[in-house]
Design brief:
Blueprint (H helix, E strand, L loop, with lengths): L12 H18 L1 H11 L12 H12 L8 H25 L15 H26 L11
Helix pairs in contact: 1-4, 2-3
Length: 151
């Protein structure tokens, strides 16, 4: 079901904020274990606290000393902090994208196109992307795909 009626109209600011915030909730919660480990590694241990020597060491010690639930400490707080940030990021991206569209795109809602028009648009987009890729490879000065010579 198209809850946001994307095909019928452009999403408004509130729709974009809500969509980004909803999408950000699982993203924020599911990355909590990595954030817990990172935070434990960054904090200087006080006398009597566990000292971590690396990523694997921290993971093992947290699990051994505190159990699996310790990896999700602060998960709900991360959701409340991060999901509005995800919403604002999506909203800003979409609004800026409407003001400054990618080359070859328009602000109009999708319309019925003939098969010929679709093929033309597709080939134009492919040429645009291929041209950019070639420019990147050329400008990098790197011999892409070349085998290193034996010395």
């Amino acid at each position: 079901k198209d809850v946001f009626r994307e095909g019928e109209r452009q999403l408004g600011i509130l729709d974009l904020l809500l969509a980004g915030a909803i999408a950000g909730m699982p993203a924020a919660y599911l990355t909590t274990p990595a954030d817990v480990i990172k935070t434990r590694l960054q904090v200087v241990a006080k006398k009597g606290e566990t000292v971590y020597t690396g990523l694997v060491d921290a993971t093992r010690k947290i699990y051994k000393e505190e159990g699996f639930k310790a990896f999700f400490k602060g998960g709900p707080a991360r959701i409340f902090r991060s999901s509005p940030q995800f919403g604002a990021t999506l909203m800003c991206y979409e609004v800026i994208h409407r003001i400054v569209p990618f080359p070859g795109e328009s602000h109009e809602l999708p319309q019925e196109r003939s098969a010929q028009q679709s093929r033309e648009l597709s080939s134009q987009a492919a040429l645009f992307h291929a041209g950019n890729a070639l420019r990147l490879l050329h400008d990098s000065g790197y011999k892409f795909g070349a085998m290193p010579s034996a010395k």
